[in-house]
From TrEMBL, chain A:
Belongs to the binding-protein-dependent transport system permease family. The chain crosses the membrane at residues 26-50, 89-110, 122-142, 165-185, 229-251, 277-300. It is found in: Cell membrane. Residues 85-298 form the ABC transmembrane type-1 domain. It comes from the Bacteria. Keywords: Cell membrane, Membrane, Sugar transport, Transmembrane, Transmembrane helix, Transport. It is a multi-pass membrane protein. Pfam families: BPD_transp_1. One of its GO terms (biological process) is transmembrane transport. This is Multiple sugar transport system permease protein. Its main location: membrane. InterPro entries: ABC_transporter_permease, MetI-like, MetI-like_sf. Residues 1-20 are annotated as: Disordered.
UniProtKB/TrEMBL annotation, chain B:
This is Multiple sugar transport system permease protein. The chain crosses the membrane at residues 12-34, 74-96, 108-129, 141-161, 182-207, 241-262. Belongs to the binding-protein-dependent transport system permease family. It comes from the Bacteria. PANTHER family: INNER MEMBRANE ABC TRANSPORTER PERMEASE PROTEIN YCJP (PTHR32243:SF18), MALTOSE TRANSPORT SYSTEM PERMEASE-RELATED (PTHR32243).
């Protein structure tokens, strides 16, 4: 196998004999990163999955025991967890979908020859560079019922009295979703812009010559070119959003009354406030499983749809 | 012709709307940071402080151990960035140059590692680090950050290695240089800018990180800036807005400065990654 791959690789042309030492060299280069990955990433992950089948708790003196699927059975009947799961899905879709369209719009604009484009590019990056905690604090200031700019602007425009955006049960989830959209704009925009810049210019010009309008040119030239990037970034965004923690933790701590308690916040409390390590690990497993299934359907559906059209 | 002009106008209006949406929260943060307590208490807040003050900054340093937290953050982020690129660069080199099963497995891992919720990683890590007596210790957090930043670091670095022509290495090999020699004296210098950009990105990632720090650091003298900032908000959510805004503003400056330096390279790196995949 090693021989086969070595002959296939493009370096094979250069050195015939010293093949073995070359492989040793490769291991020497790889190990410094591979060991930490195995010990602190792959290992803990498997350990974490194993923990979900145990009754592990923090600070307990008795030995941890295997309890089979008991955690998962409990989880099945834990309505609080499924409420949180539903909120997590609402949040993930509510952030990912509008963010995709907003970012696509911005990317299309930034791809045009507009003045002030540099300013927009510079500003578009700001949310990316900021610590999530600061983003949370910043939006708390924006949403602040008295000292916040949002209520002030609304009342100046005569759009009614101020609200307690983050603590009102009706508005809290919506308010954090807006922050989520804002915070993730840069990554999505940059990825889509990268895709746009790979679109063949000639095709565009040819389509314009044939009298295709802006929408048709987008449908037939631009979209096919950026589709792989668009699929990848929206799938990644969905995963990242579903697993996100810091932003909402800082904004609402999951309140009011659990209205913004994302699954990660729920699992965090279960593990590090109540010390239920095994149970929290089981939650993590369920999250991965459900997300994988949803993504598989999404990606398969999208790719098939692409073939048909 | 007229439709084109109106289309242009619409584009500018849209661009302006984006600019406002993206910039206004940050401007409001800055505005709040410089407002005296009296103005913050008024029911009619303004964009530009009538009576700008630095009092909030002084108060922020008095109320919370910001200096210590800043030093902790700096130490952790620098160490994590340094270790991450030192161990990731050789591996990225192998991944980029050899289509072996190992590189495939590593690439697969980079993708898969994105999908797992942190809670599944943090509980075992917590237990492992506890056994090593690295809970509430900065080296423990550095370890976690190194591993956590490896996927993206590897991804960026593989792109940069691919940009170095393989013919150069073949020439060096013809001249009798070994693998190590080739890497150190031919590849490394050409890679240097990419490695620096990757290190800076790893630095920002660690500087900004909150969740692992929240779980692993218990006492205020060990905590990093994001955790201390979160303490500002307090349990009831009633914060001194001025000092809170001032501290948040200060904590953002290093990330913003570094990010503006590497912005082109990051977007370039993403572009390279997008083309490859």
């Amino acid at each position: 196998m090693t021989l086969a791959t070595a002959t296939k690789s493009r370096r094979s042309a250069k050195s015939g004999p010293p093949r073995k030492p070359v492989d040793h060299g490769a291991w020497f280069l790889v190990l410094p990163a591979l060991i930490p990955i195995l010990v602190l990433s792959v290992g803990p992950l498997l350990y974490g999955i194993a923990l979900s089948f145990t009754d592990a708790q923090s600070g307990r003196t008795e030995p941890t025991q295997w309890i089979g699927l008991l955690n998962f059975q409990d989880l099945l009947h834990d309505t609080l967890f499924w409420d949180s799961f539903r909120i997590g899905l609402l949040w993930a879709v509510g952030v990912t979908v509008p963010q995709f369209f907003l970012a696509l719009g911005l990317a299309l604009l930034l791809n045009q020859n507009l003045r002030f484009r540099w300013l927009a590019r510079a500003l578009a990056i700001i949310p990316w560079a900021m610590p999530e905690v600061v983003v949370g604090i910043m939006w708390r200031l924006v949403y602040h019922p008295d000292a916040g700019v949002l209520n002030e602007t609304l009342s100046n425009l005569g759009l009614g009295e101020g609200r307690d955006w983050l603590t009102g049960t009706a508005t809290a989830l919506f308010a954090v979703i807006v922050v989520g959209i804002w915070a993730g704009m840069p990554q999505t925009t940059v990825a889509l812009l990268a895709g746009l810049q790979n679109t063949p210019k000639e095709l565009h010009e040819a389509a314009a010559m044939d009298g295709a309008g802006a929408w048709r040119r987008f449908r037939t030239v631009t979209w096919p070119a950026i589709k792989p990037v668009a699929l990848a970034i929206s799938a990644l965004n969905f995963i990242w959003n579903f697993n996100s923690f810091a932003l909402v933790y800082v904004l609402t701590q999951g309140g009011p009354g659990g209205r913004t308690r994302l699954p990660m916040l729920f699992a965090y409390e279960e593990a590090f406030r109540y010390g239920q390590f095994g149970y929290a690990a089981a939650m993590g497993c369920v999250m991965v499983a459900v997300i994988s299934v949803i993504l598989a359907f999404y990606l398969v559906g999208r790719l098939k749809g692409g073939d048909a059209s | 012709m007229r439709t084109r002009k109106s289309a242009r106008a619409a584009q500018y209006v849209a661009l302006l709307a984006y600019l406002v949406f993206l910039a206004f929260p940050f401007l409001w943060l800055i505005s709040t940071a410089f407002k005296p307590a009296k103005e913050l208490g008024s029911l009619d807040p303004t964009w530009i402080p009538k009576d700008p003050t630095l009092q909030n900054f002084r108060q922020a340093f008095d109320e919370q151990p910001l200096l210590q937290a800043g030093l902790n953050s700096l130490l952790v982020a620098l160490s994590a960035a340094l270790v991450a690129v030192v161990i990731a660069t050789p591996m990225a080199y192998v991944m980029a140059r050899h289509q072996s099963r190992l590189s495939k497995a590593a690439t697969g891992w980079v993708v898969v590692s994105q999908a797992f919720p942190f809670v599944l990683i943090i509980i075992p890590l917590f237990l492992i680090l506890k056994n090593l007596h690295l809970i509430n210790a900065l080296p423990g957090l550095v370890l976690v950050y190194v591993v956590w930043s490896l996927p993206f670091a590897l991804w960026m670095l593989v792109g940069y290695v691919r940009a170095v022509p393989a013919e150069l290495e073949e020439a060096a090999a013809v001249d009798g240089a070994g693998r190590m020699r080739t890497f150190v004296s031919v590849v490394a210098p050409l890679l240097a800018p990419g490695v620096v950009a990757t290190a800076m990105f790893a630095f920002i990632t660690a500087w900004n990180e909150f969740f692992f720090a929240l779980v692993l650091l218990k006492t205020p003298e060990k905590q990093t800036l994001p955790v201390i900032l979160n303490r500002f908000i307090g349990t009831e959510g009633v914060a001194d807005l001025g000092p809170l805004a001032a501290a948040a503003f200060l904590a953002t400056i290093p990330s913003l400065v570094i990010f503006s330096i590497i912005q082109k390279r990051i977007t370039g790196g993403m572009l390279a990654g997008a083309v490859k995949s």
